[in-house]
């Protein structure tokens, strides 16, 4: 959760959306969360689903989401080590908001391009494990 630090007064927000965007805003976090709504993913799976993100940025974003208790990291004691990421119960609370953003985005693409499928890539259902 976002805090100012030990002993300091809690940060003040003008509207709740500020707090939400502080946790899940930016270019990558909503995409990571969206892909985790389809199930546990390894870092390599997320990189395949979001090819534009660098490994360093993915790691940074996952750590931030983990710190804010949106994502949990599961480490398996295997050789080589296996790590998976999944949404926490708290993180699942973001799904309705992401669904609405997705629907709005599709309507926006229809408005701007006349047909969203001119610019919206087909999502491969086999990756939706």
TrEMBL record:
GO molecular function: DNA binding
PROSITE patterns given in the database record: HTH_HXLR (PS51118)
Keyword terms, alphabetized: DNA-binding, Transcription, Transcription regulation
One Pfam family per UniProt: HxlR
InterPro entries to which the protein is assigned, alphabetical: HTH_HxlR, WH-like_DNA-bd_sf, WH_DNA-bd_sf
Start and end residues of each HTH hxlR-type domain: 9-113
The protein's name in its UniProt record: DNA-binding HxlR family transcriptional regulator
